[in-house]
């Protein structure tokens, strides 16, 4: 294993805490969404639609982050945690501590961004 066991354990703890936080936020958010109300004028209805749209966008962001956390936990289990998916080199320790679910080293992220810009044209 390229990443020290202490770092893996530290990151695993952070990942589990982040996972629990997201699950709690999703549960809380479900209770705050106002039930569909078809009464009110156009302004009220527009406001409700905007709130629902914002709620759905936020839930999608949380779902994607939860997926990344679950993927990182899976990489810990299979022994590939801390290796960049782009370069197969170890991810920087400071980067793992800051973003424990990251899949890419700084170099790998730059390569991926460069490729995305190239194909976006």
Q: Summary?
A:
With 121 residues, the protein is an all-alpha fold. The chain has a single domain (5-120), classed as Four Helix Bundle (Hemerythrin (Met), subunit A), CATH 1.20.120.910. It is 71% helix and 0% strand.
Summarize the topology:
Blueprint: H1 5-32, H2 42-78, H3 93-98, H4 106-120
Helix pairs in contact: 1-2
Within CATH, the superfamily carries the name DksA, coiled-coil domain
> Can you write the helix and strand succession as a string?
HHHH
- What would the average pLDDT be, to the nearest integer? 90
CATH topology (fold) name: Four Helix Bundle (Hemerythrin (Met), subunit A)
Helix content: over 70%
- List low-pLDDT spans: none
Radius of gyration: 19 Å
**N-to-C CA distance:** 39 Å
Structural class: mainly alpha
Number of helices: 4
Q: What CATH first level would be assigned?
A: Mainly Alpha
Strand-residue fraction? under 5%
General form: flat
């Amino acid at each position: 294993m390229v990443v020290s066991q202490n770092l893996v354990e530290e990151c695993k703890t952070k990942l589990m805490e982040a996972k629990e936080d997201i699950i709690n936020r999703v549960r809380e958010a479900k209770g705050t969404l106002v039930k569909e109300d078809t009464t009110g004028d156009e302004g009220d209805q527009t406001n409700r639609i905007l709130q629902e749209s914002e709620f759905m966008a936020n839930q999608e962001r949380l779902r994607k982050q939860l997926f990344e956390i679950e993927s990182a936990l899976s990489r810990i289990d299979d022994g590939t945690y801390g290796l960049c998916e782009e370069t197969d080199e170890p991810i920087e320790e400071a980067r793992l501590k800051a973003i424990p679910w990251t899949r890419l080293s700084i170099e790998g992220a730059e390569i991926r961004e460069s490729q995305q810009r190239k194909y976006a044209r």
